[in-house]
Amino acid sequence: MKEKNIFDVLENAEYDSMERLIDKCPEISDEQLEKIFVMSEKKFRKQRAEKERTKRDNSIKMTHGDVVEGVEHSKRPAWLTPLTTAASILLIAGIAIGSTAMLKRHTKPHGDGGITPAVTVTTSTGTGTNIVSTDENGSTITGTAVTTTTTTVTAKASDGKDNNTEETADTEFIKPFVGTWRYEMSSVNNLSIPESADYMGTVEITADAAYTMTDNSGNVTHGTISNAVEEIGGTRLQCLDFSSNEYSGTAFLTTRAYYVESRPYELHFGNSNIARLVREEHVETIETNWKSAYRKELVNLINAGTVFNDPMWDLQDIDGDGIPELFISSGTEKSDYVQIYYYENGNAIGINNTVQVLRFGDYGVTQISKEDHYIGYSYVDNIGVIYDLTRFEEHYPYNDMFIHYHQLDDPDDSPYGLNARPISEEEFNSWVSKFNSKNWISVGRQYYIGDFSPLLDN
């Protein structure tokens, strides 16, 4: 049997298989391929020399007419080891290069929201019978050789699905946000105050990363949404960038929204907590109680733009029914006063005399006596001294005492008065003693306007 160079045999016998391997790794150059085969040939020749020495040492002498009987299963052909080594190197190199190419092809320019491919290599094999040798009687010695037939490389997306098109990956980020949202803006720059969240319109987000907004005046705006990630204080936040080339009365359409996993039904615009999108099914239902009523009163005060010197507010329970009254102070000047509101049937109602909300105190504070349910204050005007004592029971003010002492020009008139009637000096002093016997505390300026913390449940 004529000897052949083993690599000539490989080149002819395994050409199709090697062709398929090379086709799977087109990034490997001819120079790199040549180096792989040189190393494999060197290893093969060394193994062949060792095998021939072993044959010589263990040769079996046969005489004419000896017959080889039965079938002997040959060992793996000697050339299969270097070929397998070369094929393995070729596959590993190809997979690495191919994976890098796929990563580059499926990663977005900003490095966020792209597909992270997983490379799966699938190799199927088949078996065949090769004739190794024959004796003079025609008997054959056969062996089973393993032949590689197919090798496939499949890129999969991070969600386990086949990566079919780049277009599908580009809109994957929008899936959790598809649906109808309510656009709200806070009139006091604090969306934790439900009463301040004014309805501004409705936004519909679709699976192709587009949106349509209809504001509360009926204006319609169309735009697109892109994916973004922003790091704030070491925390990476999922963001959505809203953009539009048209303007229809809405101002938020070219800004960034922030998404927090703890509130998956909200998207907040900016860092000031002034505007947001809320899923329609998660719009808060405001529970009616004294806290919500007082929050609404303070929000209305802020929105009304009432000119106050230095407004503040307070909570005190005057009548002892377990629900505090709301005190709003206008400032700290002599002429500043306190208005008091109580809670009834879901509303904050000002203490009044059927004409207007009564004003108590001066310098922005007033005095109360919780034990006796009194509101009281005293002050000095340009002609005398005034004492005011009002009992507050069952949400109604009873004016028990309004006494005054005025210096008068006419000696026949009494300088003392009680509730618009003249009284004697002795009676006047008796009422003053009653006023001074109360355990008064000054109230009215505890919290700044805009601080709603005592009126929130969390």
Biggest β-sheet, characterized? 8 strands, antiparallel, barrel
Runs in which pLDDT lies below 50 for 5 or more consecutive residues are: 6-15, 66-136, 139-159, 161-168
What count of helical segments does DSSP give? 7
**Hey, roughly how much beta strand do the residues contain?**
25-35%
Element-by-element helix/strand order:
HHHHEEHEEEEEEEEHEEEEEEEEEEHEE
Helix fraction, binned, reads: 10-25%
The general outline is elongated
Number of strands: 22
Strand order of the largest sheet: 3-4-5-6-7-8-9-10
Structural class: alpha+beta
Distance from N terminus to C terminus (CA atoms, Å) equals 94 Å
Oligomeric grouping of the chains: single chain
Determine Rg (CA atoms, Å): 46 Å
Q: List the domain count as a whole number.
A: 3
The overall pLDDT average reads 73
Give a written overview of the molecule.
There is one protein chain. The protein has helices at residues 6-13, 15-24, 30-57, 80-105, 166-170, 290-304, 425-436; strands at 118-134, 140-156, 179-186, 197-205, 210-215, 220-232, 235-243, 256-259, 266-269, 275-279, 312-316, 325-329, 338-344, 347-350, 366-369, 374-380, 384-393, 396-406, 416-418, 421-422, 441-443, 447-448. It has 458 residues and is of the alpha+beta class. The N and C termini lie far apart (94 Å). The longest helix has 28 residues, at 30-57. Mean pLDDT is 73; it is low at 6-15, 66-136, 139-159 and 161-168. It has seven helices and 22 strands. The strands form four sheets. It has an eight-stranded antiparallel beta barrel. A seven-stranded antiparallel sheet has the order 20-19-18-17-16-15-21, with helices on one face. Strands 14-13-12-11-22 form a five-stranded antiparallel sheet. Helix 3 (30-57) packs antiparallel against helix 4 (80-105).
